Amino acid sequence: MQFKAIAIDIDGTITHMDRRLSLRAAEKLRILDVPVVLATGNILCYAKATAKLIGVCCHVIAENGGVVTDGFDKKPYVSDVITECEQAYDILSEEFKMEKLDSRHRRTEIVLNRNFDIERARVILSNTDLDVEIIDTHFAIHIKSKKINKGTGLVRMADMMGLKTSDFVAIGDSVNDKELLELAGYSIAVSNADDFLKDIADHVTGEPYGEGTAEAIEYLVSNGMLKARDQ
């Protein structure tokens, strides 16, 4: 089956662990003759800058599905879920000394430095009525609404593009990629991915990080699953 688009995580999937962009992965994404959707837990401006640096177009799922846009200059769709996340942060602040990250730019979730007991925080929030969850992406800790994720972001993006989620290949590495991989028509985990993500993926690469993504795209193109531009 030939798929019509690809949705791919950024950090840990097209970057190295230190967030250096894999130039090989960028090159492979750039030669694809299908839309490339960057699906990240990071903020919108970060994702837009990454898309421009790679040389792919303008489809972005940011903040774990909370912010979605199909154009660099278009007004993004922003989920109205930040209030409960802020309430959760206020509750946890009574127990932990926490450091917010990118707080000026976050519009749908609270993101924190990985310097507190996440399991204890989960227990505290389980005793509230807040419809939020805490996830650890290995780069940061996110307090996010349970109503949104990269999967819901993919549903919205597919609708914007006139596609179905099954038309997409998805590639990721972490807990916040779970729903993305589950909804896509074909899913790939890079070899540095969390074990449970490897278990649900259709294919697992031999190489980690951006090298794994480059390997994955070569596999998809060589098997006729994604179309590449004539070189």
UniProtKB/TrEMBL annotation:
Protein name (Swiss-Prot/TrEMBL): Phosphoglycolate phosphatase
Organism superkingdom: Archaea
Keywords, comma-separated and alphabetical: Carbohydrate metabolism, Hydrolase, Magnesium, Metal-binding
Family stated for the protein in its record: Belongs to the archaeal SPP-like hydrolase family.
Catalytic reactions of this protein: 2-phosphoglycolate + H2O = glycolate + phosphate
GO MF terms held by the record: magnesium ion binding; phosphoglycolate phosphatase activity
Binding site for substrate: 150
Cofactor(s) essential for the protein: Mg(2+)
PANTHER family, alphabetized: HAD SUPERFAMILY HYDROLASE-LIKE, TYPE 3, PHOSPHOSERINE PHOSPHATASE
EC number: 3.1.3.18
Organism: Methanolobus zinderi
